[in-house]
Amino acid sequence: MQLSLYPPPGQWNQFFGPALLPDGSTLYFRASLDWGGFGKGDFWQVKFTPIVDFNSDGIVDIADLVALIEHWGKEEPSCDIAPLPLGDGRVDVKDLEMLMSYWQQEILPPELVAYWKLDETQGSIATDIAGGNDGTLSGEPLWQTEGGQVGGALQLDGVDDCLTTPFILNPADGPFSIVAWIKGGVPGQVIVSQIDSADWLCADPSEGRLMTSLVPPAGRIVPPPLVSELVITDGNWHRIGFVWDGSHRKLYVDGVVAAEDTQAALAGSVNGLYIGCGKAMELEIFWSGLIDDVRIYNRAVSP
After folding, report:
1. What was the pLDDT predicted at 16?
2. In angstroms, what is the C-alpha Rg of the chain?
3. Whole-angstrom Cα distance, residue 84 to residue 101?
4. pLDDT of residue 244
5. Which candidate, 293, 257, 277, places its Cα nearest to that of 119?
6. What does the alpha-carbon distance between residue 144 and residue 147 come to, in Å, rounded to a whole number?
7. Which domains does the chain have, with CATH numbers?
8. pLDDT < 50 stretches in the chain
9. 258 CB contacts (<8 Å, ≥6 apart)?
10. Torsion of CA 46, 50, 54, 56, to 10 degrees
């Protein structure tokens, strides 16, 4: 939903109550109060945009169509997207038509604060298409124009290759999520870390299971890193994620919750990120493999 000032055409200048366009896409209303002496009587418009990317993977595709079909004929708010703005209480042909009008379109939700597709073909910059926080390559990572899980990917050598980004978010500020596709690696290597702070996503040093070192602030008792039972260094592609919902740490592997615990807070940091190495660039923990499609959200999602 986007809020913007609307200069009223003729028929609106005598209108004082809210009105919805016949297609439900836009709500018009007039301010009855002012803010600091300004704004009273201004006309505003609110545009409603349906959430058609049901699984939040950034594109409207077969996965979203399957989700809609699974709820066909049912009362399911997440898939009841038409007519705007609130649906009609039933998943039906109207919702299918709305979904298909966005087919194969890339959808960037507002809570997606950083998104490195890693589909570049050359150069030392990885573009953040969501937040403008472009990353800079260090070492000699190789752009793989083919063979990524989603388009191309970045190949790191496990010696000194990594990607450095500006500050994205502070884990102490509230819920957030990070999701990425990875392939390769060995136990003990790090996929994403916050500089001089914590390793967000890594492979545990014993068996290569997905692990996070994001923990609460220092206190009398500091819980250990959260470790899953699922190995991610087996040479296959895996979609991994860490989700902090404000009270729980969760690790995801291939869409499944692989580990979870309860924590009241996370330690904070306002530093940038390393993608492909640990928080202090320690030797022997640089990632040796492929990394693709790294996303960071400022809310809890279900990867």
Report:
1. 56
2. 22
3. 14
4. 96
5. 293
6. 7
7. 2-47 (no CATH), 53-107 (1.10.1330.10), 112-217+225-297 (2.60.120.200)
8. 1-15
9. 210, 228, 229, 230, 251, 252
10. -40
Q: From residue 9, how far is each of 6, 28, 153 by CA, in Å?
A: 9, 12, 49
pLDDT of residue 215: 94
| pLDDT score at 44 | 77
Here the tokens at position 111 are 């809570």
207-240 residue pLDDT tens: 999 999 999 988 767 788 999 999 999 999 999 9
- In total, the chain counts a number of residues equal to 303
Q: Exposed e or buried b for every residue in 103-135, given b needs 16+ CB within 10 A?
A: eeeebebebbbbbbbbbbeeeeebbbebbebeb
Token look-up 């910059």 returns 125
Q: What is the 3-state secondary structure (H, E, C) of 169-200?
A: CCHHHCCEEEEEEEEECCCCCEEEEECCCEEE
CA angle 53, 295, 3 (to 5 degrees): 55
